[in-house]
Amino acid sequence: MPPQVLLVEDDDKIAAPLVRTLEREGYDVRRVPEGQRALDTLATSQVDLLLLDLGLPDMDGLDVCRRAREDGYTGGIIILTARDGELDRVVGLDVGADDYLAKPFGLAELLARTRALLRRSAAAPTPTVAPAAPTAAAAAIDSSRLRVDVQARRVWVREQELAVTTKEFDVLALLAAIRGAVVSREQLINDVWDENWFGSTKMLDAAVGRLRHKLEEAAAPARITTVRGIGFRLEDVPDA
């Protein structure tokens, strides 16, 4: 089954060539012009990648991105917009976008970033039958009570599963693999995004910020700390 791409763009002159280009690359593309229709599609259909314009007629694209993440969408999100200010880029990343392209952009660059995100998403299939939450005995084996299941690509805090995006999971899995040790920013960028990544490193900071928030909300007995000038580490804290 080809990757399912949802393009949210109200300008026909922009949407038409994008759809043609993506379909030539073998993607199954669906296009909607409004934010609410995009949210409805995400709720009822499989979508591997969301290409999202911010200037929509019914609602701001940033709100679409935020609501999509709140509703549990974990696929890739690339924001496409004429807003090229740093504040808009940072806000977009903070509300859950994986990437950001300012218009006008080259189709080759869009396709490269699309392939990079879909490569990561392909490694995270959604299981048809959800595995049971870890038992008390299993939890006791993990003294931190934070369980990162690399094979199933799922994260548990005690019996609670955390909803994380593909990028968030990859960052957390790298930190959890050598818990207590520092993972450099360069390694995280190279392993989670791409060794040839040419975008802003703010996406790493945004992903770490969202992970911190989710761990805090779940009262996880682990936290991500910043080692200034080097990177990040995942360290255990007393379980309250």
Automatic annotation (TrEMBL):
DNA-binding residues: 138-236
Entry keyword annotation includes DNA-binding: yes
GO cellular component, one term: cytosol
Keyword Phosphoprotein on entry: yes
PROSITE patterns for the chain: OMPR_PHOB, RESPONSE_REGULATORY
InterPro entries from the UniProt entry: CheY-like_superfamily, OmpR/PhoB-type_DNA-bd, Sig_transdc_resp-reg_C-effctor, Sig_transdc_resp-reg_receiver, WalR-like, WH-like_DNA-bd_sf
Keywords: DNA-binding, Phosphoprotein, Two-component regulatory system
GO MF: phosphorelay response regulator activity; transcription cis-regulatory region binding
Coiled-coil residue windows: none
Annotated positions of the 4-aspartylphosphate modification: D53
Domain Response regulatory: 4-118
Xref: Gene3D superfamilies: 3.40.50.2300, 6.10.250.690, Winged helix-like DNA-binding domain superfamily/Winged helix DNA-binding domain
Pfam (any one): Response_reg
GO biological process: regulation of DNA-templated transcription
PANTHER family, A to Z: PHOSPHATE REGULON TRANSCRIPTIONAL REGULATORY PROTEIN PHOB, REGULATOR OF RPOS
Protein name (Swiss-Prot/TrEMBL): Response regulator transcription factor
